[in-house]
Amino acid sequence: MKISKIISVMFLGIMLVACEQVSDIKNKIAGNEEKKQQQETAVKEKKILYWVAPMDANFRRDEPGKSPMGMDLVPVYEEEGDGTGVTISPSVVQNMGVRTASVKFGRLWRRIDTVGYVNYDEDKMSHIHLRTDGWIEKLFVKAEGDRVSKGDVLFQLYSPVLVNAQEEFVQSLRVGNKSLRDASHDRLIALGVSENQIQELAKTKNVQRLLKFYAPQDGVMTELKVREGMYVKPATEVMMLADLSTVWLIAEIFESQAGWVKVDQMAEVNLKYLPGREMKGRVEYVYPALNPKTRTLKVRLRFDNIDYVLKPNMYADITIFGGAKKDLLYIPREALIRTGQQTRVILEAGNGRYESREVTVGIESGEAVEIVAGLHEGEKVVTSGQFLIDSEASLKASLSRMKSVETEQTGHKVISVHGIIRKMKPEQHKVNLTHDPIPELKWPSMTMDFDLSDDASLKGLNNDDKVMFELMEMPEGYIIKRIWKMDTKPVVQKIISGHGVIKQLKPEQNKVNMMHDPIPELEWPAMTMDFDLSSKASLNGLKAGDKVMFELMEMPDGYSIKRIWKMEGMPQ
What we know:
Number of helices: 6
Distance between the termini: 93 Å
Number of domains: 5
Number of strands: 35
CATH superfamily of the largest domain: Efflux pump adaptor protein, beta barrel domain
Strand content: 35-45%
CATH topology of the largest domain: Elongation Factor Tu (Ef-tu), domain 3
Largest sheet: 6 strands, antiparallel
Helix content: 10-25%
Radius of gyration: 42 Å
Shape: elongated
């Protein structure tokens, strides 16, 4: 009886524990379901714009599916804000191999990495010419590249003029006429006979039919233009000697770095045929002019060449240290995205969000580059995978710009203001104004710079003019849409649309060459011509052969393109 009671109590305890565990499991399941529902609700609240391939931002679809590489497409959600950034899930970030680096504050060396070549030391070169005509009877140096020492015999020359000059000198010694002797001595010196040879002639009084000519310095024969038996004149360059105990190293410096280099700066030189051997030197001379063809500046370094390992015309890798620039921001050079019109980076904004930001760069030093404007210390920029992110951000920025244009055309709010022109800045497309208070913006009266829209014209305006102007809100702030004198009517620029085919893009000239259809408003027939581009017209995504639509805007110097886009695409 006791045993059965004990068993009953144990069974009851086990059941209670089991019930508690089941209850905990149910609670956890309920909690997970609730969390899952919350996440799904949060996702549903965000609108999916489209689906994109993880490794190709240009592959987009309106529904889920597979990329050309067989990967699942990932959704891109509608984001709050100005629409110029993108949000990427952690898994896609990992697949893309995105790496970031912090914006740092410190100093950069004005390091000039360039190439150069070994050249002869022109201060240690000798050109051998004769001072009379004659025949090379005996040549002791047989080929270019032969090494000679100072005082070695180079060749023997027969010259009737030299024979006659020797006879005159001997005759002057025999007659004892001092003035005649001095004149004969000076003539021999002028003809290139050495003092030792003259003294030997005075001692022996034996006229030499063949005179020897000696090496004026140590060196190698770099040019040998005569052979035995050859008749030579004073204009003939017989040979050239170069001393290779020291050499010049000529470096080519880019025009943008020409202001960094100065005499006596340290330099390091590496040659491919001497791996692991680094030579140190100093800048000896900076040439005064740039090469007009290569747009480079020559810089000369001098090196001792005792073991003759440096040979003329060898190429060398050269690093010149131009001093440090302190207290600046810098990032890795690989983070920059350079286009024809701007330089930008991709900024990590947190929570998987990335933004494209325009920057102004300064000096480059090795793998680092100075940031003059656009970033702050500690911000993180993308150094790998930024081009895929940038293509996505550029698309959203284009859509954002289009949206602002559409808003303007459909009744965007415009604020009218009175002011006085202080300074016109047409080259910057700006104007400095002292304006009245603007209640709509809660702005007090103040003097400030305003950007001008493409429609705004300063034609007919001067400093100190009283004006009215219209402010229009843009993503980057308020700009002047129109401006005119108080006593005149506003000038409204006419926008004319046209069709055409691109023949040639000329971004470096800010032009495009097109064959356009007739434009009745201007009474223009169909023809091919160059068009200037306005400051906000973009050729991104366009190429020769594209059929396009464009908008022309009248400017003081003619008509320029305000916008241009593909016929099957959307205006940029």
